[in-house]
Amino acid sequence: MEGMPGMGSMSPPTTTTSSNRNHHALSTLMHMTFFWSTDAEILFSGWPGTHKGMYALALVSIFVLSILVEWLSHCRLLGKEGSSGDVASGVVRTVMYGVRIGLAYLVMLAVMSFNGGVFLVAVGGHALGFFVFGSRVFGKSQDCEKASDLPPLNC
């Protein structure tokens, strides 16, 4: 930092002890590789904590969110195609699109915890959701653009 203008006189933040500083630095580090542990922070500081039951609840929540994203991606919530010019219909579609994208980002942020279990349940939830709602196994033979009133993610 010596050769950079305005940076030579900066000093590191002070703490009471070096062990306190090291503990704080270690507690704020984020994993940058996948790890397999129930001791993780997912989406919120301190959640799910160290309790294995809360970790299981977090995994179930992410699984359900992933399925919900796929359902919103492939469902038909509004009426016929002829109502596409209606302003109210457009507002509802826009709100539903925002909800779908918001939930998708929540799942993405959960996966960014780099916890292996979170990654597996997110992928599993998306795969199961696609199988049930998007794979046409259950009789949906419509074109992708006509099967949903939301802009498609995969078309």
Automatic annotation (TrEMBL):
Transport as UniProt keyword: yes
Keyword Coiled coil: no
Region (Disordered): 1-21
Short name of one Pfam family: Ctr
Keywords annotated in UniProt: Copper, Copper transport, Ion transport, Membrane, Transmembrane, Transmembrane helix, Transport
GO cellular component terms listed in the entry, alphabetical order: plasma membrane
InterPro entries the UniProt entry points to: Cop_transporter (IPR007274)
GO-annotated molecular function: copper ion transmembrane transporter activity
Membrane topology, from the record: Multi-pass membrane protein
Transmembrane segments: 53-73, 94-112
Membership in a protein family: Belongs to the copper transporter (Ctr) (TC 1.A.56) family. SLC31A subfamily.
Record-given protein name: Copper transport protein
